[in-house]
Amino acid sequence: MKTGKIAVLAGDGIGPEVMAEGLKVLTTVEERFNFNLLKQSALIGGAAYDKKGHPFPDETKEICDNSDAILFSSVGGPKWSNLPPELTPERGALLPLRKRYNLFVNLRPIVVYPGLEQASSLKQELIKDLNLLVVRELTGGIYFSDPKWKKKNEAIDTMAYSRTEIERIAHFAFQAAKERRKILTSIDKANVLMCSKLWREVVTEVAQEYPDVECNHLYVDNAAMQLIRKPKQFDVILCGNMFGDILSDEASQLTGSLGMLPSASINAETSFGMYEPAGGSAPDIAGKGIANPLAQILSCALMLRYTFKLEKAATAIEQAVQQVIADNIRTIDIISDGCRQVSTSEMGDEIVKILVR
Ligand code: IPM
Ligand code: MG
């Protein structure tokens, strides 16, 4: 039987509620597909700060260091946003997690599930059957380069990229495109930024190794516009760290339902990864039992695919999510006429029912 170890970091806000449903579904697929994951929970984010004085405490580091993957929910909330920057959940936990485990590939699949078209603010014909993949570089660029400081009247951030950093993310994106519709759009601002000039040069070189993938380059401002004008022209969108942050939020709203979108942050050299819903901690609805757990459940599928190479189990989860939508079962964020509204935990139960059918 295949075995592995995962760190379970539920974090803040709706994190613990949606994590419970993710774990419920994982246990079900473990039985059905005969594998076993040892799950160790640890504190992260504001919850960790409150109990241990730091958003990413040593005990949590140790559990993550000894795992094959991290299943993550969300961190942050108004309670912790005025702490010194290095102690906030974002700067003190999320970015250090990405750096510590060299999670340089961030995948954000943007999928409009049949039946959810009306959730988008775009015309239905523009987004029907939309399926695109944002591949974001996650450990370099302006987020992590030095110098970086702020004084009273001046501040500086630095954007730096090396050839190696661009090459490795580009290879991942081209390989992903090869398995999909074979169109890759690389995003930059090569008319202004030196990093972008290098980015475009390196991506163009890497493209030579993938002659069956069509490679296009777009300036980021044009890409932002094209994404809402005609989103289905895209298949794989390759971006550096900051442009990927911005365009992935924009792309997520094409689907209209942030509660449906998983994300994977991977060290492509070791397969270690961190898997989390894209939607954040949503403190306003925490504890009410109404959060949509499907993004967390889909994040479990990404973990099984990318870290544990359990493709069948991953696909089974994704099909169950598709089925639950087809069966008109909805949490409140995606409800529409004629559908049955369920709570967070009922949604988890419905997915389990489909998986054991
Ligand atoms: C994301 C988030 C983070 C980022 C924040 C919370 C630091 O917006 O994962 O997209 O900017 O990367
Ligand atoms: Mg973001």
Q: What does this protein structure show overall?
A:
This protein has 357 residues and is of the alpha/beta class. The chain folds into 2 domains: 201 residues, Isopropylmalate Dehydrogenase (3-Layer(aba) Sandwich), CATH 3.40.718; 135 residues, Isopropylmalate Dehydrogenase. Helix content is 41%, strand content 22%. It has 12 helices and 14 strands. The strands form 3 sheets. The protein has a 10-stranded mixed sheet, sandwiched between helices. A hairpin with a 6-residue loop joins strand 11 and strand 12. Helix 1 crosses helix 10, helix 1 runs parallel beside helix 12 and helix 10 runs antiparallel to helix 11. The longest helix is centred in the first third of the chain and has 19 residues. It is globular and about 55 Å long. The site of magnesium ion (MG) has 2 residues, from helix 9.
Nutshell version of this structure?
The protein is an alpha/beta fold and 357 residues long. Helix content is 41%, strand content 22%. The protein is built from twelve helices and 14 strands.
Can you tag this structure with a few keywords?
357 residues; alpha/beta; Isopropylmalate Dehydrogenase; 10-stranded mixed β-sheet; two-stranded antiparallel sheet; 12 helices; globular; binds 3-isopropylmalic acid; binds magnesium ion
